[in-house]
């Protein structure tokens, strides 16, 4: 079967194939179960644990979970026994320590509960099978530490590493093969010497240091609050594309790199702006509904689903949770969606830019700080101008951005996210904060020691800033509440009511590192502001309002440059940002260098203690190495695709034109159209051949740069190979526009984006 026939067969299958039907769980009386009745049924929650354990054992575990004591052997053995019974009752035959290596995804190694006990009898030895899971097996496992990215901290002959149960995240079961299940134990991953080899260890460390710093500041501002713990909350809006799996299987570039390396836009894509929030296609709705059911069972609170801007692009978003749990749930959601999509003959694409010319995908991280008393420290309340605690924590975040914006740029940098950042669809490389007119006015009024201005909006005179009421002038419609701030979709870091939305995070990356960096920078700013307050207070035990205002005014002045309310995509902002001294870090390899610059390294290692210097340098090496490898894989894939499929297709079409012209010449028929087509194809084929050869030369140049260090290797990949890939693509896409459809070997954008 030819490539063209395979394409058509895949299209017919997508249109006529059998659709998967899932029966929603029902009660004994036949009525559908409520989501709340399904939620967490496959999770070994604290409530489940409390029922399964003796009260003293459970109390001991809670003390350990709160950091007040170590987990003793008796408690660990009791929990291991209880969770084994619970899991095996749900079909589990194996368990796995589930962790987050620095690969952007998760990892797992399965071990069976089955064990053999040797009995010594007069007749000899006899092995008895039993199901066993001990406390020591629960607490840790030992995957190979040499086969994951370590940035040189581990070598092949230094293979030992440990996964350790993260008691702050609940264990759960997932379906395995043949009706069985697997017990998942959320874990951290460290080397034999205790170095963090994963994303989660540093996230948990950053949560701890931020909690201590923020708790100290809250109790200094309001001693009567008696706050004992502060934590960060996170809600991750996950964007993705869904394409037909058979069409996907015919695109080697999608399978190998996650994005299309060639391809022209169809005449209609997103320009009518009719896909966003439109009707979800039935096959997609079926898949997402199954995803939501699986997530309910796993205790993942998916709240929202909708069409995104580009065709075949969608989004799901959860309710906010504690940050480390939210990260676990985001990665688990991505994994479950991958499996569910497969069942519906779909393929999920998490790459930030799988299709050139339409919007890419992000992972908007909605981040806030909360106390153990249920208070959101970033809630402005109805009178933010007198809520000094809110203003101080707001300024701590702004100060973090002002001092360590390059680190946030590092945290979202990758070869894939580079295709999206600043492309009129996602925040640019300049990190700034959007607060909205009202909060900006509050800060300006405090700084200038004057009353607030009276806002008025001519077209809606009934808008009241204080009461936040909006009357839309239609008698049948009710008045509605109005948020304190508008939205700015161009801002990389926008305040959205009672949280910050870090919009620049890439769709396929783990949120762990971006949140870790943000936590660290905010912690450093809190330390600084706390010290400034104590200095201002002098011998006083509690700062007066005047003490608070003096510190607030100083930090409003210092952080003014990082606040921007306009269009972050505009060229005017690039000029203005340069005037303000804000860094414009245009490429990932350039961003990576900031990770080991003294100012930022000192904050991450000495001031907050989240990383050791070795861990930080190893991460720097991994980031550079991953960037270069990604580019090499793309270049080699494209080189093979052009040489083995696209050029042969162009040659075949050119040959058909030539043969047609020759046959018509014998018949003495006018040859104008055929000759014109040949004259159009021939130079494009030559251009593609030339650029194809230059791509090979760029790869050779890149290989020669490897011996000069990881960053030089990444810089060379960025400056030589990436442009060479773009030039090859331009030539190939020009050919796709004129080569007859039956000769083109790959499914086109029209088929990939509009066939679901």
From TrEMBL:
<dbReference type="InterPro" id="IPR008146">
    <property type="entry name" value="Gln_synth_cat_dom"/>
</dbReference>
<dbReference type="InterPro" id="IPR014746">
    <property type="entry name" value="Gln_synth/guanido_kin_cat_dom"/>
</dbReference>
<dbReference type="InterPro" id="IPR008147">
    <property type="entry name" value="Gln_synt_N"/>
</dbReference>
<dbReference type="GO" id="GO:0006542">
    <property type="term" value="P:glutamine biosynthetic process"/>
</dbReference>
<comment type="similarity">
    <text>Belongs to the glutamine synthetase family.</text>
</comment>
<dbReference type="InterPro" id="IPR040577">
    <property type="entry name" value="Gln-synt_C"/>
</dbReference>
<dbReference type="InterPro" id="IPR052725">
    <property type="entry name" value="GS_Type-3"/>
</dbReference>
<dbReference type="GO" id="GO:0004356">
    <property type="term" value="F:glutamine synthetase activity"/>
</dbReference>
<dbReference type="Pfam" id="PF00120">
    <property type="entry name" value="Gln-synt_C"/>
</dbReference>
<feature type="domain" description="GS catalytic">
    <location>
        <begin position="206"/>
        <end position="646"/>
    </location>
</feature>
<dbReference type="InterPro" id="IPR022147">
    <property type="entry name" value="GSIII_N"/>
</dbReference>
<feature type="domain" description="GS beta-grasp">
    <location>
        <begin position="93"/>
        <end position="194"/>
    </location>
</feature>
<dbReference type="Pfam" id="PF12437">
    <property type="entry name" value="GSIII_N"/>
</dbReference>
<dbReference type="Pfam" id="PF18318">
    <property type="entry name" value="Gln-synt_C-ter"/>
</dbReference>
<protein>
    <recommendedName>
        <fullName>Glutamine synthetase/guanido kinase</fullName>
    </recommendedName>
</protein>
């Amino acid at each position: 079967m030819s490539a063209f026939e395979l394409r058509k067969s895949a299209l017919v299958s997508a249109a006529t194939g059998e659709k998967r039907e899932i029966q929603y769980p029902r009660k004994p009386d036949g009525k559908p179960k409520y989501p709340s009745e399904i939620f967490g049924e496959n999770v070994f929650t604290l409530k489940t644990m409390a029922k399964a354990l003796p009260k003293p054992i459970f109390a001991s575990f809670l003390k350990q979970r709160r950091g007040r004591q170590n987990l003793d052997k008796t408690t660990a053995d009791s929990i291991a026994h209880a969770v084994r019974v619970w899991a095996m009752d749900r079909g589990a035959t194996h368990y796995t320590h589930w962790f987050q290596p620095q690969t952007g995804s998760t990892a797992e190694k399965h071990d069976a509960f089955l064990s053999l006990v040797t009995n010594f009898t007069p007749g000899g030895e006899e092995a008895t099978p039993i199901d066993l899971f001990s406390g020591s097996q629960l607490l840790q496992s030992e995957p190979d530490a040499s086969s994951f990215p370590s940035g040189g901290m581990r070598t092949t002959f230094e293979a030992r590493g440990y996964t350790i149960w993260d008691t702050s995240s609940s264990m759960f079961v997932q379906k395995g093969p043949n009706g069985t299940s697997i017990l998942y134990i959320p874990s951290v991953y460290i080397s034999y010497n205790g170095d963090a080899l994963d994303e989660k260890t540093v996230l948990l460390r950053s949560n701890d240091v931020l909690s201590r710093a923020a708790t100290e500041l809250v109790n200094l501002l309001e001693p009567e609050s008696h706050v004992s713990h502060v934590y960060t909350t996170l809600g991750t809006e996950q964007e993705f594309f869904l394409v037909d799996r058979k069409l996907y299987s015919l695109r080697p570039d999608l399978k190998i790199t996650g994005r299309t390396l060639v391809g022209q836009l169809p005449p209609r894509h997103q320009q009518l702006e009719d896909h966003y929030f439109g009707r979800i296609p039935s096959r997609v709705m079926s898949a997402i509904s199954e995803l939501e059911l699986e997530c309910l069972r796993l205790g993942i609170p998916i709240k929202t689903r909708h069409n995104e801007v580009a065709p075949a692009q969608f989004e799901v978003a959860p309710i906010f949770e504690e940050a480390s749990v939210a990260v676990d749930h985001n990665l688990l959601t991505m994994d479950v969606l991958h499996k569910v999509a497969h069942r519906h003959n779909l393929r999920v694409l998490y790459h930030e830019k799988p299709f050139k010319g339409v919007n890419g995908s992000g992972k908007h991280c909605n981040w806030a700080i909360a106390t153990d008393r249920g208070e959101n420290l970033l809630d402005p309340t109805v009178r933010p101008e007198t809520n000094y605690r809110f203003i101080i924590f707001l300024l701590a975040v702004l100060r973090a951005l002002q001092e360590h914006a390059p680190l946030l740029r590092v945290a979202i940098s990758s070869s894939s996210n580079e295709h999206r950042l600043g492309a009129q669809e996602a925040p640019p490389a300049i990190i700034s904060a959007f607060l909205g007119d009202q909060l900006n006015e509050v800060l300006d009024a405090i700084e200038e020691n004057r009353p607030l201005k009276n806002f008025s909006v001519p077209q809606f005179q009934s808008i009241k800033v204080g009461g936040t009421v909006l009357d839309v002038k239609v008698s049948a419609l009710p008045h509605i509440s109005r948020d304190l701030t508008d939205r700015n979709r161009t801002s990389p870091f926008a305040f959205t009511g009672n949280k910050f939305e870090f919009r620049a995070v890439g769709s396929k990356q783990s949120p762990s590192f971006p949140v870790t960096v943000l936590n660290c920078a905010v912690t450093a700013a809190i330390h600084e502001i706390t010290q400034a307050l104590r200095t201002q207070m002098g011998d006083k035990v509690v700062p007066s309002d005047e003490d608070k205002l003096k510190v607030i005014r100083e930090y409003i002045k210092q952080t003014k440059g990082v606040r921007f309310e306009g269009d972050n995509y505009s060229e005017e902002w690039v000029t203005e940002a340069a005037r303000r001294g804000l860094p414009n870090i245009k490429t990932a390899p350039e961003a990576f260098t900031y990770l080991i610059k003294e100012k930022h390294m000192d904050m991450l290692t000495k001031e907050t203690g989240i990383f050791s210097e070795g861990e930080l340098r190893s991460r720097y090496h991994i980031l550079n190495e991953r960037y270069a490898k990604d580019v090499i894989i793309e270049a080699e894939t494209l080189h093979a695709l052009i040489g083995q499929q696209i050029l042969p297709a162009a040659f075949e079409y050119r040959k058909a034109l030539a043969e047609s012209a020759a046959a018509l010449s014998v018949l003495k028929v006018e040859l104008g159209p055929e000759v014109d087509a040949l004259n159009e194809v021939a130079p494009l084929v030559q251009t593609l051949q030339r650029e194809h050869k230059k791509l090979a030369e760029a790869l050779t140049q890149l290989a020669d740069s490897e011996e000069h260090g990881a960053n030089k290797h990444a810089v060379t990949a960025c400056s030589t190979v990436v442009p060479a890939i773009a030039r090859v693509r331009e030539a190939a896409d020009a050919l796709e526009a004129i080569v007859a459809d039956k000769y083109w070997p790959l499914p086109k954008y029209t088929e990939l984006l509009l066939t679901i």
